[in-house]
Amino acid sequence: MACFLVPTAAAIVTTAAGKKASEKLHFNWLNSMLWGGVAMLAIEHISHGEFVPYPPFLTAGLPEVLPEMARVGIPMTLSIFLIWGIMVTVAAVTGKRVKYIETL
User: 7 and 77 in contact (C-beta within 8 Å)?
Assistant: First the structure.
């Protein structure tokens, strides 16, 4: 129903923060993963009739939306951040390794 609202909020924050962050952090990767997930989930929710283009937009009420956001949206967003962290770490480690090999 509304699990896509959590990564949407995270994507808005990281898009704004990414403009000031170091290029080494690859915020473009994180933003691509978050916005892509939001688009995919929004399309899926629209196709199932859970999200409509007119008020109140969500077909479920607040008592159903909040538990889903906590149960699905937060773990999904945290998983995206974890995968991004792994990607940035691997890129940093392999980048250092490549630079070391080039100096030999």
Answer: yes
HSE, side-chain direction, 13 A CA sphere, residue 54: 0
Q: For 69-92, what is each residue's pLDDT tens digit?
A: 899 889 999 999 999 999 999 999
Residues counted in the chain: 104
Hunting for tokens 């538990």 — which residue is that? Answer: 67
- CB count within 10 Å of CB 11 equals 24
Q: Report the C-alpha gap between 91 and 93 in whole angstroms.
A: 6
Would you call 47 exposed, middle or buried from its count of C-beta atoms within 10 A (0-12, 13-18, 19+)?
A: exposed
Interhelix angle 74-103/27-47, nearest 10 degrees: 150
* DSSP codes of every residue in 43-97: HHHHHTTSB-SSTT-BSS-HHHHHHHIIIIIHHHHHHHHHHHHHHHHHHHHHHHH
